[in-house]
Amino acid sequence: MASFAVIPFTGCQSGENAKVRYRVIASFEVDGRPIEASTVMEIHYARVTNSLIGAGGSTKLLGEAIIADMPNKGTLYILPVEHPPQASLDTVYEYAILSTFGIRNSFGGLSDADFDALRNAKGRRAFNLRNTSRLPAFVAFSSEKNPKTIFEVDPHRVGEHFPGVRFTGIEIEITNDPITNQLRERLPWLRTTKQVFERDPPGQHRPESQRPIGYLLTRAHFFGDGSR
After folding, report:
1. Domain span holding position 177
2. Over pLDDT 90: what percentage of the chain?
3. Is residue 210 part of a domain?
4. Is 4 within a domain?
5. Distance, CA of 128 to CA of 95 (rounded, Å)
6. Cys-Cys link to 208, which of 1, 75, 88, 136 (CB 3.0-4.6 A)?
7. Domain total for the chain?
8. Strands of 33-51's sheet, edge to edge?
9. Beta bridge partner(s), residue 38
10. What is the pLDDT of residues 52-97, one digit of tens each?
11. Chain-centroid distance, C-alpha 49
12. Is residue 1 part of a domain?
């Protein structure tokens, strides 16, 4: 599956590139007690030259969804994609890492100073997706053994599906820890080559904006494009 975040034109990478290893930390309260769940990911940004439109950029994202186990409540999965209201799935960390660390340019127009800032990023900061309140997609399963039982969870209304649970925020922390590799053990059907999610029957053509998330997802959406 092609990367969501690679600008579709031919060209060559220049010497300007940056690699950012980071932990995504989701915080919750479970019956008033704070807990955290996290995953370690890595993103590569590179400048592309000699393209059909002059210049641009590309990204490669490594890692996988957060497994957020809520004691005695169930499990949430926080995907490395976004699902805006009434829209199709979209990239999330490719843009969020930039805005979280104060970089205003998109990855298609990163300056030399932007690459320096990425290479020197440090600390732990509140997740910021293009200066909005948007977040990665939250999903859960009625039965983890059956991917067709997937359903989307509103981060701000987690308690409707998980009584006593409240989402309190996401943070990004620069780290040197290994990239997380646990998801295929937890959800073995991610290893199959078969279609595991629901699809509309032949002849039914709902716009993507009208389909539940289970009709949009593929197994690849649980991973960065470099880890699929």
Report:
1. 12-222
2. 81
3. yes
4. no
5. 9
6. 88
7. 1
8. 54-62, 33-51, 12-30, 165-174, 124-126
9. 25
10. 555 689 999 999 999 999 999 999 999 999 999 888 899 999 999 9
11. 27
12. no
